[in-house]
Design a protein that fits this description.
The protein is of the alpha+beta class. It has a domain at about 10-190. A hairpin with a 2-residue loop joins β1 and β2. The chain is built from twelve helices and four strands, in the order ααβββαααβααααααα. It has a four-stranded antiparallel β-sheet with strand order 1-2-3-4, with helices on one face. The model has no long low-confidence stretch (mean pLDDT about 80).
């Protein structure tokens, strides 16, 4: 099982659960996730639904594994509040540039908090939870398992928080690009490269230079000044990562725990090192 809560938003999400879920049910929910009892989960608007396989318990007359329907619904942020949030975030280049690169800024909660908003639920009152199991306590262990699954998914795709709060990824990016600063940044990302011109030679061709007649041959070949004793090491060439960063830390084809951007940066460093060794 992939460990949930690897990112700051995943950890914050789990910390919120501990404030209103009974510890014993929380522990049982983690076991439900580790034993792969949660299936057919999907996001429907601002809700997450899933089927959870229960336990066989002959003491209560349960001889076959029951299937329970679970649902966690997030309170959506009003449209007017989203309009104000988009204007606020769209005026800050640091947040805007990272979001356009499909990266979640570590301080994204700060500009939202200035408007009295929060992506993460701030309490049980912002969640509507239902489970078809006979447990009278809510949230039950089946809902706790679904919460853990959702925390793991948020680690891979933090933009799911926006969707659960009423704003899809496509709409978020589109509205950010429509802001004045976002329009300028977006146009720079899709700018057409300049026209390529063919080179006449793979290497620089030497140009003949006649020696001055007033210089003696010995002085010409030895030179009037001595060459410097040491040569500074060249600076390593920077590898542009615009295309790599455009997909974010967890692009759709990337199912590993570590960041795709960090893996590719390490790969490029190895390629540069190998190329330097060969030269």
């Amino acid at each position: 099982m992939t460990k949930a809560g690897k990112t700051w938003w995943g950890r914050r999400f789990l910390e919120g659960l501990e404030s209103f879920i009974e510890p014993r049910r929380l522990a049982r929910g983690k076991q439900y996730l580790s034993s792969h009892r949660i299936s057919r989960w999907q996001v429907l608007g601002n809700a997450v639904v899933a089927r959870v396989r229960g336990q066989v318990n002959p003491y209560f007359g349960i001889y076959e594994e029951p299937l329970y329907e679970t649902r966690i619904e997030f309170a959506p942020i009003p449209a007017a509040a989203w309009d104000e949030a988009i204007r606020h975030i769209g005026a800050k280049a640091g947040y805007l540039s990272r979001l356009l690169f499909n990266e979640m800024p570590d301080e994204i909660e700060q500009p939202l908090a200035e408007l009295g908003l929060s992506l993460l639920p701030r309490g049980r009152q912002e969640l509507l939870m239902r489970c078809s199991c006979p447990d009278s306590e809510s949230p039950c262990k089946h809902l706790a398992g679904l919460f853990y699954l959702l925390a793991g998914r948020l680690d891979h795709d933090p933009f799911l928080l926006f969707e659960l709060r009423g704003l899809s990824r496509e709409e978020l990016i589109g509205r950010l690009k429509a802001t004045p600063l976002g329009s300028a940044l977006a146009s720079a990302l899709v700018a057409e490269p300049g026209e390529l011109k063919p080179a006449t030679s793979l290497f620089t061709r030497p140009e003949p230079l006649a020696a001055p007649e007033t210089v003696a041959p010995r002085e010409f070949w030895r030179g009037r000044r001595r060459l410097p004793g040491g040569i500074e090491a060249p600076q390593p060439a920077a590898v542009p990562g615009i295309l790599i960063r455009k997909g974010g830390d967890s692009p759709p084809f990337w199912d590993k725990d570590e960041s795709f951007v960090e893996v590719m940066e390490a790969f490029y460093e190895q390629v540069k090192k190998k190329a330097k060794d060969w030269l």
